[in-house]
């Protein structure tokens, strides 16, 4: 999507810790990308723009995660916040995957219905995947932020920040 091509991470923060987290994230990434930038489009949600890959940014931030970060989502795809675009893009990002799947949609801001998106994606994929919210191989997370939606494919618990990620 034009203008949003460089989004590499979506990070949720503790309440009112966006500025503190922004500084910590920049400190981790600037040595590797001088042009990195971090924006807070909605309260407690940061978008990281970088020329590095999503996985590189994720690894650098998770190697010493800021205490103010709650969840860190590596970005696989950014699309317009439109039912058709979100559903079609979700299906295409899962094209070569298999196993059990959990679809999670989180409305950060906007007026789409996440339940509708979760049901539609799950319905289309029910013949290829075992849909399971408790025991899954792949978690498809869709974060909706106004006019954009960030799609991430994760393993169980991958987005959570913990002290274990420091070891």
Notes on the structure:
This protein is of the alpha+beta class and 167 residues long. It folds into two domains: 69 residues, PDO, CxxC motif (Alpha-Beta Plaits), CATH 3.30.70; 74 residues, THUMP superfamily (THUMP fold, 2-Layer Sandwich). 27% of the residues lie in helices and 34% in strands. A five-stranded mixed β-sheet has the order 5-9-8-6-7. The protein has a four-stranded antiparallel β-sheet with strand order 2-3-1-4, with helices on one face. Strand 2 and strand 3 form a beta hairpin.
Explain the layout of strands and helices.
Elements: E1 7-13, H1 18-29, E2 37-42, E3 45-49, H2 54-63, E4 69-74, E5 77-80, H3 83-93, E6 99-109, H4 114-125, E7 129-131, E8 138-145, E9 148-154
Helix pairs in contact: 3-4
Describe what is shown at a glance.
With 167 residues, this protein is an alpha+beta fold. 27% of the residues lie in helices and 34% in strands. Strands 5-9-8-6-7 form a five-stranded mixed beta sheet. Strands 2-3-1-4 form a four-stranded antiparallel beta sheet, covered by helices on one side.
């Amino acid at each position: 999507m034009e203008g949003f091509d460089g989004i590499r991470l979506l990070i949720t923060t503790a309440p009112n810790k966006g500025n503190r987290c922004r500084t910590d994230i920049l400190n981790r990434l600037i040595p590797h990308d001088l042009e990195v930038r971090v924006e807070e489009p909605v309260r407690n949600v940061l978008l990281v723009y970088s020329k590095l890959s999503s996985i590189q940014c994720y690894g650098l931030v998770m190697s010493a995660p800021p205490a103010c970060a709650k969840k860190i989502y590596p970005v696989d795809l950014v699309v317009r916040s439109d039912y058709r675009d979100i559903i079609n893009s979700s299906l295409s990002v899962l094209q070569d995957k298999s196993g059990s799947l959990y679809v999670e949609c989180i409305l950060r801001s906007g007026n789409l219905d996440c339940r509708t998106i979760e049901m539609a994606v799950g319905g289309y994929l029910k013949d290829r995947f075992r849909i399971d919210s408790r025991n899954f191989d792949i978690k498809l997370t869709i974060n909706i932020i106004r006019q954009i939606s960030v799609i991430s494919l994760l393993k169980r618990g991958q987005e959570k920040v913990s002290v274990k990620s420091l070891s």
